[in-house]
């Protein structure tokens, strides 16, 4: 149920472009709980996170830093958000590499992995997180351009980054893909987005089997409605104000409530888990 800490409604607001800016959101998303205590679960590890400048990606980056990891974050154009995330990581005593570019470009993805290894000497954790979504009431209005962009960002990039990362990853490395509750229950106005998220689940399951013999684990997190910049950058003011109220818990989640699942999947705590999905969705039962 809604609490004083986590309200069930937001001020009416919207942003004009994706993936959106965290600096313009009201209230600001909770990145990490004050009482979250790192315990060295990721000491001396190196993580690369796409969409790491804000939202879930920022929260994962800061949690990883508090657990002892150095972090490279990939982002599109949100320089201010990226530098704020970098500062938060450095305040945790860890190093942060900022990499700006378009993840729809396979050459850029390869270069991002190369830059990470050149800076930190290794790569242990890949988090494929960046995404875009464009609501349409009718499938007839989904253009070829929108369809291509959504698939290129949401699923093609995961292939690009994974292919590049596997050239430098070794046994005990982990890959974590951000899926969505829409992969399991659908969304009538997010047809192409939901389709990409379904593809991510299948990709995760198949890749986990492909890499099991190499000792590399692959899992996914399927968030429900989480308060991130993508929300005011996607929906109108009315929908934003009621965002998340249709969940059993009656509210949207915060990035701080999702990121610990990524810590778990990146750490030895999940050493016997691969090909699975953690559902952080406010209580929606998806039976899978």
TrEMBL record:
<dbReference type="InterPro" id="IPR036291">
    <property type="entry name" value="NAD(P)-bd_dom_sf"/>
</dbReference>
<dbReference type="Pfam" id="PF13561">
    <property type="entry name" value="adh_short_C2"/>
</dbReference>
<dbReference type="InterPro" id="IPR020904">
    <property type="entry name" value="Sc_DH/Rdtase_CS"/>
</dbReference>
<dbReference type="InterPro" id="IPR002347">
    <property type="entry name" value="SDR_fam"/>
</dbReference>
<comment type="similarity">
    <text>Belongs to the short-chain dehydrogenases/reductases (SDR) family.</text>
</comment>
<dbReference type="GO" id="GO:0016614">
    <property type="term" value="F:oxidoreductase activity, acting on CH-OH group of donors"/>
</dbReference>
<feature type="region of interest" description="Disordered">
    <location>
        <begin position="1"/>
        <end position="23"/>
    </location>
</feature>
<keyword id="KW-0560">Oxidoreductase</keyword>
<protein>
    <submittedName>
        <fullName>SDR family oxidoreductase</fullName>
    </submittedName>
</protein>
């Amino acid at each position: 149920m809604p609490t004083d800490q986590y309200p069930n409604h937001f001020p009416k607001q919207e942003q004009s472009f994706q993936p959106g800016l965290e600096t313009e959101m009201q209230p600001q998303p909770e990145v990490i709980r004050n009482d979250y205590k790192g315990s060295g679960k990721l000491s001396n590890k190196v993580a690369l996170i796409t969409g790491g400048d804000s939202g879930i990606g920022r929260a994962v980056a800061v949690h990883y830093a508090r657990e002892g990891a150095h972090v490279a974050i990939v982002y599109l154009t949100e320089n201010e958000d990226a530098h704020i995330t970098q500062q938060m990581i450095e305040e945790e005593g860890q190093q942060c590499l900022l990499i700006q570019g378009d993840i729809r470009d396979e050459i850029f993805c390869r270069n991002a992995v190369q830059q990470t290894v050149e800076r930190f000497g290794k790569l242990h954790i890949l988090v494929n997180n960046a995404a875009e979504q464009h609501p349409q009431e009718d499938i007839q209005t989904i253009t070829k351009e929108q369809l291509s962009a959504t698939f290129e960002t949401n699923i093609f990039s995961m292939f690009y980054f994974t292919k590049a990362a596997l050239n430098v990853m070794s046994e005990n490395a982990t890959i974590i893909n951000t899926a969505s509750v829409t992969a399991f229950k659908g969304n009538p106005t997010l047809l192409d987005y939901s389709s990409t998220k379904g593809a991510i689940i299948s990709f995760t399951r198949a890749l986990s089997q492909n890499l099991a013999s190499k000792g590399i684990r692959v899992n996914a997190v399927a968030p429900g409605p989480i308060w991130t910049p993508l929300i005011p950058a996607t929906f109108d003011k009315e929908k934003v104000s009621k965002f998340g109220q249709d969940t059993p818990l009656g509210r949207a989640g915060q990035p701080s409530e999702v990121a610990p699942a990524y810590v778990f999947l990146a750490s030895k705590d999940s050493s016997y888990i691969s090909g699975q999905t953690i559902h952080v969705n406010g209580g929606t039962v998806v039976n899978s």
